[in-house]
């Protein structure tokens, strides 16, 4: 009997899931991968692009070039998801059903939820925003740069701190650092807080060594692009010459009516199998949420999406073949922290450890920077995916 799997979303997790299902399943089984964009963007490289170390053409590829033979890629907008019947509505194609659904739609960015923010600064979590930040930095004569996180929960927890450090390195290279001030305002209480206090302290120390002033627990309320001022919820204000920010995140809108989400708008899943409350329906990556014992959710990061994709693919194909489900996601992961000057640190360990994650931070080195480059190459299909 032939089976069909539909994977929603062609990001890191979605592509990995579709490829792994195709690799494991029978020849007469179908694997469909659906996304509204025909191109895959390797988002971690946006930071390098923002400081002039990558070009746009270097960091994205057609999805069809990244999927295995036999994966059917369909481009379109998903109008609805019915997990009970494992049916979706795809514009231009009507209703489509499957034996298994894998929801990997990521997180949507919502800079518009903060008045004035989109007009005031550069959202380096998007390609246009990273490019505009690159151009602004190229013309920057010196002055005050603010790097901020607009909400305490966002994907790639190290990215805003990497951005501040990479901007510092760029200004030093251009001889502008003595004429410039870099201030980091974070809505969260500490950098990469889920990784634990020692990791947070190490990141704060990295910022301090570069003269980057770090201020936590400052939630932005609004921004005035004309006056170049941001206002925080405590009533304080800060002026800037250049503003770079991580926008608020929200679940993709199609999930709201799907019946998949919890009270926070994200999809709760079994931490070991990534299965939702519905049979043969899985959620991986940024649109899924896994609660840790410490009270925080598992961070949203590509390394987890990739690992989860492999687990889901192995298990759903095992079910099709009548075999036991044995693969379990164990919560292990790693995160690079680019520090500039072709060096990177790396935090790695077990995020499922109790009562708190057991994460160690390796100090910055050239070798860890090169390791991140290899991850980039693999993600873009220039290394075995």
Task: Tell me what the structure shows.
The chain is 25% helix and 27% strand. It is an alpha/beta fold and 385 residues long.
Summarize the biggest pleated sheet: 5 strands, parallel
The proportion of strand residues reads 25-35%
Percentage of residues in helical conformation:
10-25%
Mean pLDDT, to the nearest integer, reads 96
The Cα radius of gyration reads: 21 Å
Structural class, by secondary structure, is alpha/beta
What coarse outline follows from CA principal-axis ratios?
A: globular
Low-confidence stretches: none
Order of strands, main sheet, comes to: 5-2-1-9-21
Helical stretch count?
8
Tell me the span between the first and last alpha carbons.
Answer: 29 Å
Tally of DSSP β-strands: 25
Question: What's the arrangement of secondary structure elements?
Answer:
Elements: E1 4-8, H1 12-24, E2 30-35, E3 39-41, H2 46-50, E4 60-62, E5 71-75, E6 78-82, E7 87-90, E8 94-97, E9 100-103, E10 108-109, H3 117-120, E11 122-123, H4 127-138, E12 144-149, H5 159-173, E13 181-185, H6 197-209, E14 213-215, E15 220-224, E16 229-232, E17 237-239, E18 242-246, E19 249-250, E20 267-268, E21 281-283, E22 288-289, H7 302-320, E23 332-338, E24 344-350, E25 358-365, H8 366-379
Parallel strand pairs: 1-2, 1-9, 2-5, 9-21, 11-18, 12-13, 12-18, 13-14, 20-22
Antiparallel strand pairs: 3-4, 6-7, 7-8, 10-19, 15-16, 16-17, 23-24, 24-25
Helix pairs in contact: 1-7
């Amino acid at each position: 009997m032939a089976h069909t799997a539909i994977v929603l979303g062609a990001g890191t997790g979605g592509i990995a899931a579709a490829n792994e299902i195709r690799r494991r399943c029978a020849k007469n089984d179908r694997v469909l991968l659906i996304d509204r964009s025909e191109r895959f963007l390797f988002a971690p490289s946006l930071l390098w692009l923002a400081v002039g170390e990558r070009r746009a053409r270097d960091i994205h590829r057609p999805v069809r070039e990244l999927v295995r033979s036999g994966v059917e890629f369909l481009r379109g907008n998903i109008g609805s998801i019915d997990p009970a019947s494992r049916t979706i509505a795809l514009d231009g194609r009507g209703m489509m059903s499957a034996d298994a659904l894998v929801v990997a739609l990521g997180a949507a960015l919502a800079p518009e939820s903060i008045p004035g923010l989109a007009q005031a600064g550069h959202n380096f979590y998007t390609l246009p925003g990273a490019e505009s930040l690159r151009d602004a930095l190229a013309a920057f004569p010196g002055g005050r740069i603010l790097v901020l996180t607009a909400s305490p929960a966002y994907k790639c927890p190290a990215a805003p701190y990497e951005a501040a450090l990479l901007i510092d390195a760029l200004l030093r290279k251009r001889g502008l650092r003595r004429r410039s001030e870099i201030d980091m305002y974070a809505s969260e209480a500490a950098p990469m807080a889920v990784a634990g206090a020692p990791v947070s302290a190490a990141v704060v120390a990295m910022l301090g060594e570069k003269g980057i002033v770090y201020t936590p627990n400052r939630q932005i309320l609004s921004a005035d692009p004309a006056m170049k001022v941001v206002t925080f919820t405590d009533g304080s204000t800060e002026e800037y010459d250049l503003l770079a920010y991580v926008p608020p995140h929200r679940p993709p809108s199609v999930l709201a009516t799907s019946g998949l989400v919890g009270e926070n708008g994200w999809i709760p899943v079994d931490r070991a199998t990534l299965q939702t409350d519905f049979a043969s329906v899985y959620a991986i990556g940024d649109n899924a949420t896994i609660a840790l014992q410490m009270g925080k959710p598992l961070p949203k990061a590509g390394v987890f999406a990739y690992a989860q994709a492999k687990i889901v693919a192995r298990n759903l194909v095992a079910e099709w073949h009548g075999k036991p489900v044995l693969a379990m996601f164990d919560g292990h992961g790693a995160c690079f922290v680019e520090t500039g000057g072709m060096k990177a640190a790396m935090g790695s360990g077990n995020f499922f450890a109790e009562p708190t994650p057991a994460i160690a931070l390796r100090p910055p080195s050239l070798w860890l920077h090169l390791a991140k480059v290899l991850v980039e190459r693999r993600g873009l299909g220039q290394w075995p995916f």
